[in-house]
Amino acid sequence: MTNILVCDDEKEIVDAIEIYLMQEGFQVFKAYHGQEAVESIKKNEIHLVIMDIMMPGTDGIRTAMKIRETSSIPIIFLSAKSQDADKILGLNIGADDYITKPFNPLELVARVKSQIRRYTMLGNIAGEKEKIYRAGGLLINDDTKEVTVEGEPVKLTPIEYNILCLLIKNQGRVFSIEQIYEQIWEEEAIGADNTVAVHIRHIREKIEINPKEPRYLKVVWGVGYKLEKQ
User: Fold this and answer.
1) 102-133: pLDDT as tens digits
2) Are residues 213 and 112 in the same domain?
3) Which residues contact 102 (CB under 8 A, 6 or more apart)?
4) Which residue, 126, 212, 229, 211, is CA-closest to 173?
5) pLDDT score, position 188
6) Contact of 164 with 175, CB cutoff 8 Å
7) Do 96 and 40 meet the contact criterion of CB atoms below 8 Å apart?
8) Predicted TM-score of the model (pTM)
């Protein structure tokens, strides 16, 4: 069973989300502040976190940063703030998605399913031949979902991994922001520029010696991004 942790200081919101998720067969764990969420993840096998940003004490941003120290599970932020700057901040610290309050519960459930689908795809697929993709010192084992640069392991979030995997499988091909978004998020690319750019920057910070002068992940100005053939 898939375990979802819902964290919000408003009990009514947590209870409402629980009802919709349980109807879809998810097991729901509840928390009402950041520290409680962190403790729940330590004690339970959590597969995805839905978390409010504005909470008393340890807010969602700092809680997500703490989670990211040890886990790459998907994190969906809930927030009453809708400005791009707030969304970018959430993505910058490792969130995978961002939904503005008030939200449609059915949309939230759809986004949960989408994130879980991508996350579970990172598991091993029995019976398949090992798939290894290499670009210079960058190596991806798409069977074990391991990424290394010059032999050193690199830890990516599910979204980051899927973007990098898309690009390394198509070395030299330029993908527009819209193409990347639609293939990875599996939805229409409306206002996707900032979302994709943030994830690209994170990938560069993890795989490049000098992210400002990338060897692997290149921008083609006015067109999109590509993984340079080595």
Assistant:
1) 889 999 999 999 888 877 765 533 334 457 88
2) no
3) none
4) 229
5) 81
6) no
7) no
8) 0.60
